[in-house]
Structure formats: structure tokens, C-alpha cells
Task: structure prediction
Amino acid sequence: MEAPCEADFWTKSAVFPDEWQDDELHTLDPMSAGRLVFAVFLVLQVADGLITYGAVSIFGGAAEGNPLLQTWIQLAGAGPALFGAKLLACGCGALLYVHGVERTLALLTALYLVAAVGPWLHLLSA
Result:
């Protein structure tokens, strides 16, 4: 019985079964653009929720620009209303991601950055 050459030693292992030694398991695919957009979308949703919660806690419900969300803040309180709104937004973003509507998700992410998180960051940096 021949000893395996050095190249075979590094590519095959006697410890793991052959089905575990698939080359696909050893390659790390870079993050896809759609997954990155979805991750940024989720981060922006969380950031907006936290910033809005802080602003509503300090300035009251008028700090929220969405009249529907203002109403829910008055009815249920800032925490539950914002949590529900962000949960719904993240769920809708997940549906867009799962169905492969990446351009729409990217457009909404950019819009959210410019129209929601950006103004808060500008206001808080002053």
C-alpha cells in the first residue's frame, strides 16, 4: 500500500467520510449583492427604530413624521408601535429578498437611508 502524496493529504482526510469532503463545503462564497442589500436594509430599519424611539421619548409623538405611526404611538406607546412597524418593514424586506426582487429592495434601502436615517443623523450631529 502506497503512502498518499502530500497533495492528497491536504485534500482528503481519513477522519471524515467521503460525503463530508465535498469541495463545495470548503469554499467560501463571497456575500451576494442581494444579501448585502438586505443586511443593510435590516440595519437601517433597526437604526431608524432606535433613533425614533429616543426622539419620541424626548420630544413626544410629534417627533415621528408618519401620521399613521403617530396614531399607533398614541394608542399603544412608542415601544410597541415602533417595534411592530419595524417588524413589519423587516418582514416585507425579507419577502422582497426571498422572491429575488433585489432592485426594489436596493431602491427602498437607498430611499430609507436618504429620507429616514439620514435626516436623523444630520439633526443629531448638529
In short: Residues 32-125 form one domain. The helical segments are 6-11, 23-26, 33-59, 67-76, 78-98, 102-125.
